[in-house]
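writing this on my phone so excuse typos. first protein, seq and then structure
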Amino acid sequence: MTMSPPTENRLHFVTGKLAEPTLREILGPLAAQVGFEPTVQVLNITVAALMTTEWIARRLEVPAGTDRVVIPGLCRGDLASLEAVAGVPVERGPADCRRLAEWFGQQRQDLADYGSHDIEIIAEINHANRLSQAGLLTEARRLREAGADTIDVGCTPGEPWAAVGAAVAMLVTEGFRVSIDSFDPAEVTAATRAGASLVLSVNSSNVDAAADWGCEVVVVPDVPATLEGFDETVARLGARGVPLRLDPVLEPIGFGLAASLGRYLDVRRRYPDAEMMMGIGNLTELTDVDSAGINTLLLGFCQETGIRSVLTTEVIHWAASSVRECALARPLVYHAVTHKSLPKHIEPRLVTLRGGKPQSHGDEALERLAAAIRDPNFRIFAERGQIHLVGRGLHLAARDPFALFDLLAAHGRDDVDASHAFYLGYEMAKAVTALTLGKDYRQDQALDWGYLTEPEIGCGPSAAAARVAAGEVSQPAAPAKHGAAR
């Protein structure tokens, strides 16, 4: 999330003690580059993410002439109540102050119309004839919620579906736009009479029946590799006034992928004004790789080529989120093509595996944190290839969390009870995952999996640490028994 392009000159930044040196170092050149005058208020808390807007409101001091207050992006709470205290607008900045330059850089892009798109997502329900009407409706609703514009009712060759008309009528009554995926004229006729508005697909085998369906059809070649029969089918449908869109058929890797992409370009050159469709499931379902990147790449190809509809499926487990991925990808590629700008730093939700650039505080900052901690709990960091366990007067680091527990015991910390140990193990498992994948780890927060991110589960002992750090509880300082260690 970014704020609108800044017109104000005076921005007041609120931070904690740990991030202060980094924030000031970044703001110097950034303020000169972007054009604003910064002020910084360092509140008496070590980790800025532990702040809440309510807690900030009791301590906020806004300099005269300030135009806007920027608080850390991970601060929870209501901004409106904080604005009432501040007397000026308040914005959440980036989750990590090291990304301020990127944050301001995004503000300078023309994102006012971001979200616009012109590619239709057709989501196929495979073997729809094997589902009950209730099951079909549930799946259709799920796909629509994920971003599908049209629900494609997929029939099964060799399994005649006598109830296809009733199924389509039910979906149409529920407000769905429906397409029928069958080469069987009887099934298609029943579906179109019940309200299906698109037929997948038509070639020389069923072209004669298409004029009686009264709806748009998708034209495919009899032989994709040679486009045999394709032009003839297009001509016959055109002569009878049947609305159509063209699909030269995408082939899997190893079976002519490159050539099939070339055929889309060739068809676009020969039919410059025709509507076109691409069945992208032929690649996502048949390639051993997570589907988000493939979907984004194919939608980019479609956007540049003027292909305004894609057919996708969610059968294989690695493509089980394809509709959602396409829904996120289509505004991204639309923005890139229409604004002639790179599709970068705009839609982070499509970056799942490597989402969240890792932060690194360095040993000096972690040592300062260890010296400042007054409560009995631990802060965990994952950086520079190791898990760092920071407590009162204690800084331990190891790649292996089991080794960290051994180090903890060796340094005399025998006050970790079972629930605390379980919590530390849970957090360290997340930290190991972050190190393994090069992700950013933040204690008590979910790892960033892009659009797949789920809210964090549970709340461990660090909640007590947060209360102490926020000044709600006071605890006396206790000297470390064995000093800091690395």
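second protein below, same order as before
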Amino acid sequence: MVSAWGMAAETAAEGNEALLKLSSFPADVIITDLNMPGLDGFGFLQRLRDSGDMPPTIVLTAFGNIETAVRTVHELGAYWFLEKPLQPASLEVLLRRAGSHAGLSKEKSNLERQLSYKGSLGELVGTSSKMQEIFSLLQQAGPSKACVLVTGESGTGKELVARTVHALSPRRQGPFIAINCAALPETLIESELFGHEKGSFTGASERRAGCFEVAQHGTLLLDEIGEMPMATQAKLLRILEDSRVRRLGGKTEFEVDVRVVAATNKVPEEAVRGGHLREDLFYRLNVFHVHLPPLRERKEDLQPIAETLIGDLNRKHECRVSDLSPAVFEALGRHNWPGNVRELRNVLERAVILAGEGTVELKHLPSSFHTRPTIMPIAVPETSDQTSAADANDTSIRFQVGTTVEEAEKGLILRTLEHTRNNKTRAADILGISLKTLHNKLKEYGAKEFGVGA
């Protein structure tokens, strides 16, 4: 009977035999009677529960023994019970539900194992405290039905967050559809989202399903939500409220079951104030807010991200690169990464192709990574508390041509603090900035890394 439903099965006469067979036949679902010779159903369930690896188990019970079966479900962790004689239709439905439950549990366990042992969750990688907080939030948000709003600079991995939310949800077997609202002209975005009927506008030669229909029972990522026209935002808000869509030119609405994840590289509150994002839509989307920090604020993640990317790039280009040299890691750590992880991937892709195998060396990186900042002397005014001629003569900083303004600013502030022996009030006077601004800059730079107290 079970084989006719496309399922493979093994049978056992009692609990001990079943435990032995499970070592070579890792069942997704177990059906067991309570009254058996040898190890009965109660003992079998206890052994499964104590092993910590108990798949969904369906308990069979005779008429009049339902109370015992219910207690078994609650106390021993069985999935459900069925009363004899069995009804094939009921058994098939329950088996399929239990199998789906088992698949979701395995996927969740795999993702949690990645998080515990690799500092990763799905395709996201990071061992920094900021990323660990994000991983924790995603594990809570994923299984829910709530909307998720993902913010962060371009290249930080907002789509990876959306894919991870999808993978952690009960919808993981459904479709994941991503649409970039900034890439579509205003005249086409509603057709792309909601679909259209034949003849609804010039060029609509046939009915077309929109993204909400295509993503049915799955997840829809609306990237760059702040670029969506305001009129379309109003229609989107209505869909989020009542889960019903009407195609362009259509006369009737139909129900959709889609989870929405929205993403933007703008600060959403500023987008609301600037009239680019409806305030009511922002609050509707902002049930779970995940902000991805830029790579420059979590440089401790450079190594695990780079190692993961190298593995991906080796497979893509059929290379055999094993690691990065210490000089390469030092150069990567000095860079400010305005393009974030996307920029890092591009740099490493070039390096992996050039190296081909073995270790990536400094020569495989673009020329801008090869040398430390060194030219352009900048005089620092002397202070009244200088105590040696050596200190008085050491009042310049050198930056290489090509140094970014942000890197030059950081170097100037830290060198001035060194010159004033960490007298922040004097340093702020020399630099022509307020003391509060100086403190904010030091906090931003993580000045303790450079031996300067904040």
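The chain has 18 helices and 18 strands. thats all i got for now
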